[in-house]
Amino acid sequence: MLSDVVDKDISIDRWPDSPPDSTHLVRSIHALRRRPVKDLTVEDLRRLIGQDVGLQWLMSVALDFLRERAPQESTTGWYDDDLLTAVLTRKGSLWRSRPEFARHLDETVRSLTDLSPYVRREVENFRGLVSDLL
Predict the structure, then answer these.
(1) Residues 6+ apart with CB under 8 A from 128
(2) What CA–CA distance (Å, rounded) separates 24 from 30?
(3) Looking at residue 79, what DSSP letter applies?
(4) Of the candidates 80, 70, 52, the residue with the CA atom closest to the CA atom of residue 113
(5) Res 80: pLDDT
(6) For position 18, what pLDDT does the model report?
(7) How would residue 60 be classed by pLDDT, with cut points 50, 70 and 90?
(8) Is residue 70 very low, low, confident or very high in pLDDT (cuts 50, 70, 90)?
(9) pTM score, two decimals?
(10) C-alpha 25: how far from its chain's center?
């Protein structure tokens, strides 16, 4: 598993407290960074990854989660488009620095059926972005 090298008992990073006038999103991101990786929910992963926070730790955790769930979900339709979309839409620099992540995600997505047109479009964009890595 990709995430075996991640120490899930520690938090991804400690930021100082958010400024008092921060938005809810900023306050929640600051709080999530303090939570041990093992205590992050799927929604927490989606939120952090969607904000490009802690990708060096969290992408492997999210990719393993998506891979583990793919066999069950391929028969019933993908249940977590939000996490999948957050992962699919990361910048090319991430995939170039970790091509094994791109290949892992591509293999997982190939096993899925019944993706929504929106997610299929994100898959096509992802594959176009990383076609030389696959």
Answers:
(1) none
(2) 10
(3) S
(4) 70
(5) 61
(6) 86
(7) very high
(8) confident
(9) 0.91
(10) 17
Mean pLDDT of 66-76: 80
Measured CA to CA, the distance from residue 112 to residue 31 in angstroms comes to 33
Write phi, then psi, for 49 (nearest 5 degrees): -65, -40
Tell me how far apart the alpha carbons of residues 97 and 95 are, in angstroms, rounded to a whole number.
5
Q: Is the pLDDT reported for residue 37 higher than 80? A: yes
For residue 100, the one-letter residue type is E
What is the DSSP secondary-structure string of 80-129?
A: -HHHHHHHHTS-HHHHHH-HHHHHHHHHHHHT--S--HHHHHHHHHHHHH
Q: What is the structure's pLDDT at 125? A: 98
Measured between alpha carbons, how far is residue 11 from residues 8, 38, 51, 104, 126 in Å? Answer: 7, 9, 16, 24, 29
Cβ atoms of 127 and 89 closer than 8 Å: no
Angle formed at CA 122 by CA 78 and CA 6, multiple of 5 degrees: 70
57 Cβ contact partners less than 8 Å away, ≥ 6 residues apart: 6, 12, 37
Measured from the Cβ of residue 34, the count of other Cβ atoms closer than 10 Å reads 12
